[in-house]
Write a structure and sequence with these properties.
The complex is a heterodimer of chains A (94) and B (262). Chain A has 94 residues and is of the alpha+beta class. Chain A has a single domain, classed as RNA polymerase, RBP11-like subunit (Gyrase A, domain 2), CATH 3.30.1360.10. Chain A contains two helices and four strands. In chain A, a hairpin with a 2-residue loop joins strand 1 and strand 2. In chain A, helix 1 crosses helix 2. Chain B has 262 residues and is an alpha+beta fold. Chain B folds into two domains: 116 residues, no CATH class; 96 residues, RNA Polymerase Alpha Subunit, Chain A, domain 2, CATH 2.170.120. Chain B is 19% helix and 37% strand. Chain B contains four helices and twelve strands, in the order ββαβαββββββββαβα. In chain B, the strands form three sheets. A six-stranded mixed sheet of chain B has the order 1-2-12-9-10-11. Chain B has a four-stranded antiparallel sheet with strand order 3-8-4-6, with helices on one face. A two-stranded antiparallel ribbon of chain B has the order 5-7. At the A-B interface, helix 1 and helix 2 of A face strand 1, helix 1 and helix 4 of B. Chain A: Keywords: Cytoplasm, DNA-directed RNA polymerase, Nucleotidyltransferase, Transcription, Transferase. Chain A: Part of the RNA polymerase complex. Chain A: It catalyses: RNA(n) + a ribonucleoside 5'-triphosphate = RNA(n+1) + diphosphate. Chain A: DNA-dependent RNA polymerase (RNAP) catalyzes the transcription of DNA into RNA using the four ribonucleoside triphosphates as substrates.
Chain lengths: 94, 262
């Protein structure tokens, strides 16, 4: 996973997450939309039409008092909460 | 930590069906994709032929060998690790996957009865093969989950009685329902009517009129409840596949988090 910040402002972030596909990006986007302080989150796995860019680009917008990079970290934490919870629930049901 | 509920509908070593809730479609799909493409399994990748006097080319045999599932205990190996296997069969005899001799006790053919080639008199197949651990995204032969899908759990609501003179047409439904109209249901396939119970549609031969005779019913999807149907190729058990797949997503979230902090 290689990260490259494309655009960074206080409440906005566009970041390339190289080596990932829909499997992780969509889970992350879903988690971000559930994260407090995040007003918009989306990703685009660009087709070749856009100048050869094919790695997914994640875009986040946050509320005024929330730093976009912190929000991304919270989103990643949220994914971990989900995966841990589901693993536990599965193992409990076995 | 997020709370989930998992309930099994059927469960065996290589296939299972279970309900997870409450889960978002995004997360459900992430797990499905991870089970298919991101959980690594061993598969033969390089073959050195010592003798091949069979009727097929080396490459054709190589392809067939690659498709033999090999057991892959999770956590024991890393992606890229190799294990060597050998095969030596002389005709007249059929060479089977079970004839492969592995150098590692943990990595064995998952099934012993997969035919590789039928050898006639005077024909012989002797080879050495390297199996490599890789993911389904790289090549389909590395897929551990071969049939992985999910669909909504469904609820059946009785909206009235069927008209007395209506044609008795079947009402076909496939999947799993959660019983919510036990009063109008009859026992089918060993499933007593009891509200809250999960009933696979096989229990009433996929026909709602068998379960709710003389009733008019409506079927709705239950929000946030998904029925997963998982089948593995034998490389590992369903339980290992599910837990490993969720683990790959977690690993990536952890990696992302660590990269941000730098």
């Amino acid at each position: 996973m290689e990260l490259r910040v494309i655009d960074k402002e206080e409440t906005e972030l566009a970041i390339e997450i190289a080596g990932e596909d829909h499997t992780f990006m969509n889970v992350l986007k879903g988690a971000l939309l559930e994260t407090e302080g995040v007003t918009a989150a989306t990703y685009d796995v660009n087709p070749e039409q856009s100048g050869g860019q094919t790695e997914p680009v994640l875009t986040i917008k946050t509320e005024t008092d929330v730093d976009a990079l912190d929000a991304l970290e919270d989103g990643a934490d949220r994914v971990i909460e989900k995966t841990e919870g589901l693993q536990d629930a599965y193992e409990a049901a076995v | 930590m997020e709370d989930y509920e998992v309930q099994f509908v059927d469960r065996s070593e290589r296939s299972a069906r279970f309900v997870v809730r409450p889960i978002t479609p995004a997360f459900a799909n992430g797990i499905r994709r991870a089970m298919i493409a991101d959980v690594p399994t061993f598969s033969i990748d390089t073959v050195r032929f010592i003798e091949n006097s069979s009727v097929m080319f080396d490459e054709q045999i190589g392809l067939r060998l690659g498709l033999v599932p090999l057991t892959t205990p999770p956590g024991e190996f890393e992606r890229g690790d190799e294990v060597t296997l050998s095969l030596d069969v002389e005709g007249p005899e059929t060479a089977y996957s079970g004839d492969l001799v592995s150098s590692d006790e943990l990595v064995q053919p998952a099934d012993e009865n997969i035919p590789i080639i039928d050898l006639k008199e005077e024909q012989r197949l002797e080879l050495e093969a390297d199996a490599v651990l890789d993911v389904g995204k790289e090549h389909a032969k590395h897929q551990g989950g071969v049939a992985v899908s999910y669909r909504h759990l469904q609820a059946v609501e009785v909206v009235g009685d069927a008209g007395e003179f209506d044609d008795e047409e079947p009402e076909i439904l496939r999947g799993v329902i959660e019983e919510q109209a036990a009063d109008a249901a009859v026992e089918t396939g060993g499933y007593e009517p009891e509200n809250g119970q999960l009933v696979p549609t096989e229990a009433f031969e996929h026909d709602l009129t068998n379960r709710y005779p003389g009733k008019d019913v409506e079927v709705t999807d239950i929000d946030g409840a998904f029925v997963f149907d998982v089948e593995t190729d034998g490389s590992f058990s369903v339980d290992e596949l599910v837990v490993e797949a969720i683990g790959t997503i977690e690993d990536r979230a952890t990696e992302l988090k660590e990269s941000i902090q730098l």
